């Protein structure tokens, strides 16, 4: 069926709303003029000045560290939570545990952030880098848990039983059999966690303190004073990073698919 | 077909020797899951070097029994002994049993070689020893050219052989096979059955196989345990199970059989010749049946007469003696199986008896067809009387 005129119009509008702003942002990051809405010719000056803008670079560095740390801790905890959910169908408190794993996915960020803030204040913890890491870990681990859980649900337990049967103790079985096989899910969990941490503004602004300004907070506070082409440049770099990540992910998925098809062909030839 | 194994297997029957000690012993083993009893107070002895089958429909507890031996499940009560040693509390990774899984459970991230070496590596063997053993196993299952492949690059039959090699690599005292050939097509399955028997015989190991495929069990086993609802109904050699089932369930589960309900009319009749069992008679809705058998019931008791279709002769001509073991009817349907044809004969009283005939002549020469009036006749030793 060929798309009708209505269909293509709707499609065009949707894509325009989604991507036009991004395209404009990217284009204006190369603007020679300081005015964001007036094109003054091509230039890389904003990228250069970005490099020397220490506060922005600091914020980027903080964000990267927060992202890596919280994604890593969140991935470990989330994987453990997923294992618990899948492997122990009955234990006291399973239902509240499941609920608490899923809750942060639907909880408004403002509430998560505010409650974190109240907790840190109540416990008299100085807010800064580590409180942001803790806050990001707690909400990203839920996403990891869900991704890893769905992989574990389709995991053939007889693989582990076979390893046990062949004399491999349980812990070693986990590291030699289970972990390598669920690793792709864990890696994508980590990437999602990292991305979520990277672009979180709300929770970070509630839980951060002096000296730990993340990039989203920095961008937001600068934009309130007016959009500068420098911000456009930062955002363009971010977009480039994310796009590269997505492209790499889809290429490796495509490769895995091709390998699977190749394997099937080899197997078929093997029979004849 | 049966190669050299036939006569050798015949001589092997430790279960008839009262002084033989069982290799594996299930002693009053019960396994319950909540309200469901998977295995019910089951006692069973299996001997060294035996090829033993657990046969039954799905849900009869055969897999649970095997998994308890492997250590994946603990019995709710009762004991499992291996060479006289209680296995209670011994984890699967310390049991001298290895299992071939129904799904094969090959490690997808390892090559064929690595899969086979996995168990040996756990034992901390020298690299060179592992290599030698892996090569030996690859040769045994004829997979040498595929050593470097991943499981995904193998066909179903090859995967099955890798799984077999992996479970044999550690030379387990008992090899457990969970529906090992279920995923193979018929021809490959038959070939593999003989290979399995060959391997078992060469290595001199004890094999315990779980299957719902009666042909498979009949082909490979020294003895078969027929299971139903968590209990063993009969343990016997394949021939005994087929020729002398001890109840209707076994008779019906293994192969095709005609079961005629009746009442005992006389017992202990004179044998046809010395050395034969006495003759008993029964009547089934007017059909007079005589059987060479020690009567398992009293005169007047309700019993069942069971006779295999291939032991019932079918003919267009009236037999000489139609008083006993004979019935008259009409061919109602014919099942053509190639080597055999099964005639469904509707008796004059409405019951249906199956009679099988080997198709020794070509199709055109076969005289009996749909609607023909035919006679069925069977000898005194063709069937047997069942009380259960």
From TrEMBL, chain A:
<feature type="transmembrane region" description="Helical">
    <location>
        <begin position="66"/>
        <end position="88"/>
    </location>
</feature>
<keyword id="KW-1003">Cell membrane</keyword>
<dbReference type="InterPro" id="IPR051789">
    <property type="entry name" value="Bact_Polyamine_Transport"/>
</dbReference>
<feature type="transmembrane region" description="Helical">
    <location>
        <begin position="231"/>
        <end position="251"/>
    </location>
</feature>
<feature type="domain" description="ABC transmembrane type-1">
    <location>
        <begin position="60"/>
        <end position="252"/>
    </location>
</feature>
<keyword id="KW-0472">Membrane</keyword>
<comment type="similarity">
    <text>Belongs to the binding-protein-dependent transport system permease family. CysTW subfamily.</text>
</comment>
<feature type="transmembrane region" description="Helical">
    <location>
        <begin position="100"/>
        <end position="123"/>
    </location>
</feature>
<feature type="transmembrane region" description="Helical">
    <location>
        <begin position="179"/>
        <end position="198"/>
    </location>
</feature>
<keyword id="KW-0813">Transport</keyword>
<protein>
    <submittedName>
        <fullName>ABC transporter permease</fullName>
    </submittedName>
</protein>
<dbReference type="InterPro" id="IPR035906">
    <property type="entry name" value="MetI-like_sf"/>
</dbReference>
<dbReference type="Pfam" id="PF00528">
    <property type="entry name" value="BPD_transp_1"/>
</dbReference>
<feature type="transmembrane region" description="Helical">
    <location>
        <begin position="9"/>
        <end position="30"/>
    </location>
</feature>
<dbReference type="InterPro" id="IPR000515">
    <property type="entry name" value="MetI-like"/>
</dbReference>
<keyword id="KW-1133">Transmembrane helix</keyword>
<keyword id="KW-0812">Transmembrane</keyword>
<feature type="transmembrane region" description="Helical">
    <location>
        <begin position="129"/>
        <end position="148"/>
    </location>
</feature>
UniProtKB/TrEMBL annotation, chain B:
<keyword id="KW-0067">ATP-binding</keyword>
<keyword id="KW-0472">Membrane</keyword>
<feature type="domain" description="ABC transporter">
    <location>
        <begin position="24"/>
        <end position="254"/>
    </location>
</feature>
<dbReference type="Pfam" id="PF00005">
    <property type="entry name" value="ABC_tran"/>
</dbReference>
<dbReference type="InterPro" id="IPR003439">
    <property type="entry name" value="ABC_transporter-like_ATP-bd"/>
</dbReference>
<keyword id="KW-0997">Cell inner membrane</keyword>
<dbReference type="InterPro" id="IPR017879">
    <property type="entry name" value="PotA_ATP-bd"/>
</dbReference>
<dbReference type="InterPro" id="IPR017871">
    <property type="entry name" value="ABC_transporter-like_CS"/>
</dbReference>
<comment type="similarity">
    <text>Belongs to the ABC transporter superfamily. Spermidine/putrescine importer (TC 3.A.1.11.1) family.</text>
</comment>
<protein>
    <recommendedName>
        <fullName>Spermidine/putrescine import ATP-binding protein PotA</fullName>
        <ecNumber>7.6.2.11</ecNumber>
    </recommendedName>
</protein>
<dbReference type="InterPro" id="IPR050093">
    <property type="entry name" value="ABC_SmlMolc_Importer"/>
</dbReference>
<dbReference type="GO" id="GO:0005524">
    <property type="term" value="F:ATP binding"/>
</dbReference>
<dbReference type="Pfam" id="PF08402">
    <property type="entry name" value="TOBE_2"/>
</dbReference>
<dbReference type="InterPro" id="IPR013611">
    <property type="entry name" value="Transp-assoc_OB_typ2"/>
</dbReference>
<keyword id="KW-1278">Translocase</keyword>
<keyword id="KW-1003">Cell membrane</keyword>
<keyword id="KW-0813">Transport</keyword>
<dbReference type="InterPro" id="IPR003593">
    <property type="entry name" value="AAA+_ATPase"/>
</dbReference>
<comment type="subunit">
    <text>The complex is composed of two ATP-binding proteins (PotA), two transmembrane proteins (PotB and PotC) and a solute-binding protein (PotD).</text>
</comment>
<dbReference type="InterPro" id="IPR027417">
    <property type="entry name" value="P-loop_NTPase"/>
</dbReference>
<dbReference type="InterPro" id="IPR005893">
    <property type="entry name" value="PotA-like"/>
</dbReference>
<keyword id="KW-0547">Nucleotide-binding</keyword>
């Amino acid at each position: 069926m060929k798309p009708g005129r209505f269909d293509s119009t709707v499609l065009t509008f949707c894509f325009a709303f989604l991507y036009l702003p991004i395209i404009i942002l990217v284009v204006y990051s190369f603007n020679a003029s300081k005015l964001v809405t007036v094109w003054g010719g091509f230039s890389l000056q904003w990228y250069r000045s970005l490099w020397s803008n220490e506060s922005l670079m600091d914020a980027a560095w903080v964000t990267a560290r927060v992202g890596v740390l919280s994604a890593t801790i969140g991935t470990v905890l989330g994987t453990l939570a997923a294992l618990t959910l899948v492997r122990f169908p009955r234990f006291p408190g399973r239902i509240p545990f499941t609920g608490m794993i899923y809750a942060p996915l639907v909880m408004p960020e403002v509430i998560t952030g505010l409650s974190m803030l109240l907790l840190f204040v109540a416990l008299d913890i100085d807010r800064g880098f580590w409180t942001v890491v803790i806050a990001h870990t707690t909400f990203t681990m839920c996403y990891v848990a869900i991704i890893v859980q769905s992989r574990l649900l389709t995991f053939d337990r007889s693989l582990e039983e076979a390893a046990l049967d062949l004399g491999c103790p349980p812990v070693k079985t986990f590291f030699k059999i289970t972990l390598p096989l669920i690793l792709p899910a864990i890696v994508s969990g980590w990437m999602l966690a990292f991305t979520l941490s990277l672009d979180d503004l709300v929770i970070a602004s509630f839980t951060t303190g002096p000296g730990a300004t993340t990039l989203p907070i920095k961008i937001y506070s600068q934009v309130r004073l007016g959009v500068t082409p420098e911000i456009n440049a930062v955002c363009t770099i971010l977009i480039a990073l994310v796009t590269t990540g997505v492209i790499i992910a889809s290429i490796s998925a495509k490769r895995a698919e091709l390998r699977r098809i190749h394997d099937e062909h080899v197997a078929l030839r093997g029979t004849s | 077909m049966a190669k050299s194994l036939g006569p050798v297997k015949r001589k092997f029957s430790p279960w008839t020797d009262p002084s033989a000690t069982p290799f594996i012993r299930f002693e009053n083993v019960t396994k319950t899951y909540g309200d469901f009893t998977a295995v019910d107070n089951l006692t069973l002895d299996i001997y060294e070097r035996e090829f033993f089958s657990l046969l039954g429909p799905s849900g009869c507890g055969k897999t649970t029994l095997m998994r308890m031996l492997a250590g994946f499940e603990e019995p709710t009560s009762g004991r499992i002994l291996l060479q006289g040693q209680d296995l209670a509390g011994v984890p699967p990774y310390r049991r001298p049993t290895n299992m071939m899984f129904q799904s094969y459970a090959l490690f997808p991230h390892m090559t064929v070689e690595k899969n086979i070496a996995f168990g040996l590596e756990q034992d901390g063997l020298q690299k060179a020893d592992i290599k030698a053993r892996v090569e030996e196993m690859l040769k045994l299952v004829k997979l040498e050219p595929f050593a470097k492949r991943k499981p995904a690059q193998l066909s179903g039959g090859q995967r099955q052989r890798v799984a077999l090699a992996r479970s044999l690599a550690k030379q387990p005292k008992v090899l457990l096979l969970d529906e090992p050939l279920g995923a193979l097509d018929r021809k490959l399955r038959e070939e593999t059955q003989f290979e399995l028997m060959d391997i078992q015989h060469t290595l001199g190991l004890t094999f315990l196989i779980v299957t719902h495929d009666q042909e498979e069990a009949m082909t490979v086993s020294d003895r078969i345990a027929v299971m139903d609802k968590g209990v063993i109904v009969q343990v016997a050699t394949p021939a005994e199970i087929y020729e002398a089932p001890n109840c209707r369930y076994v008779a019906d589960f293994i192969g095709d059989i005609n079961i005629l309900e009746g009442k005992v009319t006389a017992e202990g009749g004179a044998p046809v010749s010395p050395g034969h069992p006495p003759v008993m008679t029964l009547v089934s809705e007017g059909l007079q049946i005589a059987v060479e058998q020690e009567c398992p019931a009293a005169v007047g008791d309700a019993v069942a007469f069971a006779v295999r279709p291939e032991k019932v002769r079918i003919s267009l001509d009236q037999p000489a003696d139609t008083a006993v073991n004979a019935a008259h009817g009409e061919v109602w349907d014919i099942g053509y199986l190639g080597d055999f044809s099964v005639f469904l004969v509707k008796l004059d009283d409405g019951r249906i008896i199956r009679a099988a005939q080997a198709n020794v002549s070509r199709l055109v020469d076969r005289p009996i067809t749909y609607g023909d009036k035919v006679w069925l006749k069977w000898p005194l030793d063709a069937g047997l009387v069942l009380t259960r």
